[in-house]
């Protein structure tokens, strides 16, 4: 226990400081303000892998590490689409995941946002379309924002989430 | 250069040859089918024989007659044979004829790796029934999980048969992320498809890209310059450290110790940022190219990586004590998901999980390629076979990789980083095998005419290890499944292809 506490104390706070002149930090401030304006509470995100190579999942995991402090920004990942405001979908959509993706989308309450993560989700990427792949996410469900990159880093994923929220009008209260 | 021995056999000799290999302690590395010459399908089985490798090929005169299956000699062959039936239309004698990678995206009679493209279907395919093995008896019920899981994980389906909390049987249903990678390979130029190989399983980008390039270099008789080989090893060890850091954090979290996830994910981010600064990418998806590497290591980059890896190794050593001394963590890790060395040997458990169950095999040690021939690796192992053992192997391997990274940075030879690679002769078959973080990654590459690919089979060690997870969970409780599953951390994409 003592070692645990010593480790916590010696590491200190890994979260990066809030607002500042850095572009990344401005993004964080803007995002938090936008989440509050649009939702008035935390943004609930459900990640769905519709056929990716798992590379984008690594960066979505990284987004959850202490450097990015997303819970501090008001973003939380949830276990069910029924609790989600926004779906983060990686792809391409394999034909075997097509029905599961449609059902996940249908289970997400309106109004819902969809952010496609990674080159494959945006365009089909290296895998393209074929007998087993439907290619980009928008071939299967409506997409609000597509974030390219192979894989896109956590800051770009955050930018994508902000961009999706920017298209939404603030909640009436 | 390492030599693959090859042997072509008849259907009558096939099983006997495999039996001899099994009795001599060889491991089945992969099994797949290719179109072969004259359109005649050929079944291939690759084996690691301790200090070498053998490729056994079985041309099928009559593809309609089932060939003798190897599933009784090498149980992990069963799913590979079912996949070959789905993709190439060749069937083994195994009475389990259920499809494996094919759910419903293409008709049963269609052979995706041989037949011309199907016209695009507009509607999503309907759901096809799959016959799970039913467990019956008083109080037995089933829990279906997936394909969409609750966390940030790849999709797959697990069918648990339980009594109360105790798992009597787990049956996996994979194939959800099958996206036609092997067919896609045949549509790409052979000198460019290493980019697809790096995306077979995103967490093993370096291992797959290296195995692909090694197969291609084997076909064209090219040896990458020494500096390139050392840089490849640097990338491979960095990939191993990054994945072990991620897993050690996630394992702590699954044992209810969120502190572990916060600490290890912080260290992983540190490493990824150092990679981005020193080598240009957080994940080394584009580092390895035919004939060498695309990146280079500057003095400043070397210092940056060295400082980062040294501090990480120090912090990990401290965190290991915290894990070891934490009663709750120890209680969850010890005795959970045990695979005895005997069971591991029988089922062919491989890689990291195999080494935690007494299967002391590591390509870097037992059949090294350059630069590991001059960069000795200490093989890590345990015989306990439980979650705690798989955690301990990760800790030890992480420390060993950190040591290797320091050695590479200190001793990397100067010189060029790229050798020109020409086009391989059509019809030739080259092999690549690399010890990725999860285990041995294999690529079999068959050249077509004019720089095309006739067939490429990438093989992830998850093929061997997924069936063992079904055994590891027996008699454990359902709430321990996430922890046990994570302790193997197998690939879906690398398996489903």
In short:
Chain A has 173 residues and is α/β, with parallel strands linked by helices. Helices cover 39% and strands 13% of the residues of chain A. Chain A has a five-stranded parallel beta sheet with strand order 2-1-3-4-5, with helices on both faces.
Description:
The complex is a heterodimer of chains A (173) and B (497). Chain A has 173 residues and is of the alpha/beta class. Chain A has helices at 2-11, 23-38, 55-63, 70-73, 98-107, 119-123, 154-166, and strands spanning 43-49, 75-77, 86-90, 113-117, 145-147. Chain A has one domain: Rossmann fold, CATH 3.40.50. Chain A has seven helices and five strands, in the order ααβααββαβαβα. Chain A is globular. The model of chain A has no long low-confidence stretch (mean pLDDT 89). Chain B has 497 residues and is of the alpha+beta class. Chain B has three domains: 4-88, Beta Polymerase, domain 2 (2-Layer Sandwich); 143-177 and 462-497, no CATH class; 181-461, Orthogonal Bundle (Cytochrome-c3 Hydrogenase, chain B), CATH 1.10.645. Helices cover 40% and strands 15% of the residues of chain B. Chain B is built from 16 helices and twelve strands. Chain B has helices at residues 11-23, 77-88, 181-185, 194-197, 205-220, 226-254, 258-279, 299-325, 327-333, 341-347, 351-355, 363-366, 387-411, 462-472, 481-488, 493-496, and strands at 4-8, 27-34, 42-48, 53-59, 140-145, 157-163, 166-173, 288-289, 292-293, 429-435, 440-447, 453-459. In chain B, strands 1-4-3-2 form a four-stranded mixed sheet. In chain B, β3 (42-48) and β4 (53-59) form a beta hairpin. In chain B, α5 runs antiparallel to α6 and α6 (226-254) packs antiparallel against α7. The model of chain B has no long low-confidence stretch (mean pLDDT 95). Chains A and B meet through α1, β1, α3 and α5 of A and α3, α7, α8 and α16 of B.
């Amino acid at each position: 226990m003592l070692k645990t506490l010593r480790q916590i104390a010696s590491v200190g706070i890994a979260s990066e400081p809030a607002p500042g002149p850095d572009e990344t930090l401005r993004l964080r401030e803007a995002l938090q303000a936008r989440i509050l304006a649009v939702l008035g509470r935390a943004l609930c995100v459900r990640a769905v892998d519709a056929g990716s190579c798992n590379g984008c999942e690594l960066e979505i995991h990284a987004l959850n590490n202490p450097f990015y402090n997303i819970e501090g920004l008001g973003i939380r990942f949830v276990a069910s689409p029924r609790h989600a405001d926004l779906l983060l979908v990686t792809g391409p959509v394999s034909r075997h995941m097509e029905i599961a993706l449609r059902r996940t989308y249908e289970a997400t309450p309106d109004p819902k946002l969809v952010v496609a993560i990674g080159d494959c989700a945006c365009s089909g990427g290296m895998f393209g379309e074929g007998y087993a792949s439907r290619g980009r996410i928008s071939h299967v469900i409506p997409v609000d924002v597509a974030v390219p990159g192979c894989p896109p880093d956590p800051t770009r994923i955050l930018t994508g989430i902000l961009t999706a929220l920017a298209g939404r009008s603030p909640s009436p209260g | 250069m390492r030599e693959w021995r090859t042997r072509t056999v008849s259907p009558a000799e096939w099983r006997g040859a495999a039996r001899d290999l099994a009795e001599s302690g060889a491991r089945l590395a992969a099994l797949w089918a290719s179109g072969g010459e004259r359109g005649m399908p050929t079944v291939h089985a690759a084996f690691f024989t301790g200090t070498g490798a053998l490729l056994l090929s079985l041309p099928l005169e009559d593809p309609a007659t089932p060939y003798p299956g190897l599933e009784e000699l090498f149980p992990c062959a069963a799913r590979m044979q079912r996949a070959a039936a789905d993709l190439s239309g060749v069937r083994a004698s195994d009475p389990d004829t259920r499809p494996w990678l094919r759910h419903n995206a293409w008709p049963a009679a269609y052979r995706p790796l041989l037949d011309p493209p199907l016209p695009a279907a507009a509607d999503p395919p309907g759901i096809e029934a799959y016959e799970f093995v039913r467990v019956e008896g008083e109080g037995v019920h089933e829990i279906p999980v997936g394909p969409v899981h609750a966390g940030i994980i790849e999709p797959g389906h697990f069918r648990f048969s339980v009594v109360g909390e105790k798992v009597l049987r787990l049956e996996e249903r994979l194939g959800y992320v099958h996206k036609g990678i092997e067919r896609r390979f045949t549509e790409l130029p052979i000198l460019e498809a290493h980019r697809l190989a790096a995306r077979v399983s995103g967490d093993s980008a370096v291992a797959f890209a290296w195995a692909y390039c090694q197969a291609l270099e084997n076909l064209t008789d090219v040896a990458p310059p020494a500096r390139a080989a050392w840089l490849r090893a640097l990338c491979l060890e960095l990939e191993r450290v990054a994945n072990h850091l991620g897993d050690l954090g996630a394992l702590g979290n699954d044992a209810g110790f969120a502190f572990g996830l916060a600490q290890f994910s912080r260290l992983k981010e540190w490493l990824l940022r150092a990679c981005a600064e020193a080598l240009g990418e957080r994940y080394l998806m584009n580092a390895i190219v035919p004939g060498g590497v695309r990146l280079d290591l500057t003095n400043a980059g070397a210092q940056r990586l060295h400082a980062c890896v040294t501090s990480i190794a120090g912090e990990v050593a401290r965190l290991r004590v915290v894990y070891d001394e934490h009663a709750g963590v120890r209680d969850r890790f010890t005795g959970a998901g045990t695979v005895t060395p005997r069971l591991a040997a029988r089922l062919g458990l491989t890689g990291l999980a195999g080494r935690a169950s007494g299967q002391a095999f590591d390509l870097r040690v037992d059949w090294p390629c350059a630069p590991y021939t001059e960069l000795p690796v200490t093989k890590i192992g345990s015989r306990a076979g439980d979650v705690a053992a798989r955690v301990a192997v990760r800790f030890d391997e992480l420390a060993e990789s950190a040591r290797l990274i320091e050695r590479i940075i200190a001793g990397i030879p100067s010189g060029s980083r790229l050798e020109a690679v020409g086009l391989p002769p059509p019809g030739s078959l080259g092999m690549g095998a690399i010890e990725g973080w999860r285990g041995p990654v294999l690529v079999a590459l068959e050249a077509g005419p004019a720089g095309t690919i006739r067939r490429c089979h990438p093989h992830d060690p998850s093929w061997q290890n997924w069936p063992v997870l079904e055994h590891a969970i027996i008699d454990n409780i359902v709430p321990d499944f996430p922890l046990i599953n994570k302790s193997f951390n197998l690939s879906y994409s690398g398996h489903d292809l």
